[in-house]
Amino acid sequence: MSPRPIALSCGEPAGIGPEIAARAWDTLRDTCPFVWIGDPSHLPPETPVARIEASGQAVAASASALPVLPLPFAAPSVPGRADPRNAAGVIAAIEKAVSLVQDGAASAVCTAPIHKKALIDGADFAYPGHTEFLAALAGGAQAVMMLAGPSLRVVPVTIHVPLAQVPRALTPDLLRATIEITAADLTAKFGIARPRIAVAGLNPHAGEGGAMGREELDWIADLVASMSGPYTLTGPHPADTMFHAAARARYDAAIAMYHDQALIPIKTLDFDRGVNVTLGLPFIRTSPDHGTAFDIAGTGTANPTSLIEALKLAQRMARAA
């Protein structure tokens, strides 16, 4: 069977997505073939482009040009200025990437950053972000966000929730489902036969016996102790001692209770090479762990490293699946 490319949706054309896609191709060429889905006129003008009609042509084309499945957009791209007229095109590119992987024509989906306000203004986009939209395209799957880097994989149980609301949003059912989805995908998509998962506490020092919060005593410790399966589960651990090198060597993924508890350590360890991975979907999806960066769009200074790492990780996951 010939290798299948990764389907890369263009993201917001006024952001850095088009230029980092071109630079990612220039770095990877045919070592990690992908097909870019979008309007070719939005790419940097010096980009060698191979317009293809089917994703299967991307592998051969990748050696000498960026393979592009052309998708006409309503408006030109002005760096740094999102145009709501292009919202429908951005959404269509994501839908096309998903349909390619669902049809077996692509090995994985990788998504460039989107601008949610432009999508809402231009197309009444009804989802908080990529993850929820992809879950809907997958038939309503429960999706879980993982941040993965060279030395850490971490999964936040609650994500874009104000800190004051985290204790209410954090429920036993949500924590259990997050652990189970993480364990299943560490095996199915990362090739880890028996994953080791460490669970962080919610409170400082994991509650310190109830002196700094009771959630660990009241239900988190019991839930962790009650769970069993083809994985090793430990915790709740004090979060402030979970992320140094010796601690990271003892697990394959960490479960964090809220956004900053997860994202601060991975961005501190390796800011440029962090990758956003969506677990729980019936296909592989990765994304660079940054936004549209309107302030530097079009300047040629955007760092493509996170996108390159996202494409390379998608390729490794596809080979492990």
Automatic annotation (TrEMBL):
GO molecular function, one term: NAD binding
Binding residues annotated for substrate, in chain numbering: H130, T131, K267, N276, R285
Cofactor note: Binds 1 divalent metal cation per subunit. Can use ions such as Zn(2+), Mg(2+) or Co(2+).
Chief location category: cytoplasm
Pfam families reported for this sequence: PdxA (PF04166)
Localisation per UniProt entry: Cytoplasm
InterPro entries the UniProt entry points to: PdxA, PdxA_fam
GO BP annotations listed: pyridoxal phosphate biosynthetic process; pyridoxine biosynthetic process
EC number(s) on file: 1.1.1.262
Cofactor annotation: Zn(2+); Mg(2+); Co(2+)
Any one Gene Ontology cellular component term annotated for this protein: cytoplasm
Keywords: Cobalt, Cytoplasm, Magnesium, Metal-binding, NAD, NADP, Oxidoreductase, Pyridoxine biosynthesis, Zinc
The protein's annotated pathway: Cofactor biosynthesis; pyridoxine 5'-phosphate biosynthesis; pyridoxine 5'-phosphate from D-erythrose 4-phosphate: step 4/5
Broad enzyme group: oxidoreductase
Residues the entry annotates as binding a divalent metal cation: H160, H205, H259
Catalysed reaction equations from the record: 4-(phosphooxy)-L-threonine + NAD(+) = 3-amino-2-oxopropyl phosphate + CO2 + NADH
Family according to the record: Belongs to the PdxA family.
Further comment: The active site is located at the dimer interface.
Function: Catalyzes the NAD(P)-dependent oxidation of 4-(phosphooxy)-L-threonine (HTP) into 2-amino-3-oxo-4-(phosphooxy)butyric acid which spontaneously decarboxylates to form 3-amino-2-oxopropyl phosphate (AHAP).
Subunit structure: Homodimer.
Entry protein name: 4-hydroxythreonine-4-phosphate dehydrogenase
Phylogenetic classification of the source organism: Bacteria, Pseudomonadati, Pseudomonadota, Alphaproteobacteria, Rhodobacterales
